[in-house]
Amino acid sequence: MIAGYLERIGYLLSWWLNRVAMGALVAMMFLICANVILRLFYRPILGTYEIVGFLGAAVISFGLAYTTVKKGHVAVELVVSRFSQRTQGVIGSITSFLSLALFALLAWRSVCYAANMSRAGELSQTLKMPFSPLVYGLSFACALVCLVVLVELFKSLAQAVKR
């Protein structure tokens, strides 16, 4: 019951975050095209490199959870698929636990890093935009991946103990 509820929340949040990533990708494409065209008239857009960097980070981090939901990451199933269902569940549980630990660590350290950046007042060079909101977004995306992986861990554990 709780796993189903968490799965729905994880799917919905990751779907919305993925839409933000899609929008960032489209914005990046338009910005680069506009900058190339305006360079022909010696009027490049100021800070394009920084904005593209910020948008690229958003595309990658905000797409992580949805990719995890859709099982779009690289997986080695050739060997694992030959094992019994119980063994597959055990391997899935171990993999999910390690993934959960990694992304929890990433989320926690990203929050710490963003707080330090915010305290220090770190800004981008050209546009003087703060870095910390982007790093907080990355930490939220990693926390959402934790939620998705936690649901996968529950499913793998249920498969491992199933008779």
In words, what does this structure look like?
- The protein is an all-alpha fold and 163 residues long.
- It has one domain.
- Helices cover 80% and strands 0% of the residues.
- The longest helix has 39 residues.
- The model has no long low-confidence stretch (mean pLDDT 94).
Structure summary:
The protein is mostly helical and 163 residues long.
Flag low-confidence runs: none
Shape: elongated
The number of distinct β-strands equals 0
What's the rounded overall pLDDT mean?
Answer: 94
Roughly how much helix do the residues carry, as a percent range? over 70%
Rounded Rg: 20 Å
Q: Count of helices?
A: 5
Give a quick account of the main beta sheet: strands, pairing sense, barrel closure: none
Strand content: under 5%
H and E order: HHHHH
Distance from N terminus to C terminus (CA atoms, Å) equals 20 Å
List the topology elements.
Blueprint: H1 2-40, H2 48-69, H3 77-80, H4 85-120, H5 132-161
Helix pairs in contact: 1-2, 1-5, 2-5, 4-5
Task: Describe this protein with a few key phrases.
single chain; 163 residues; mainly alpha; 5 helices; elongated
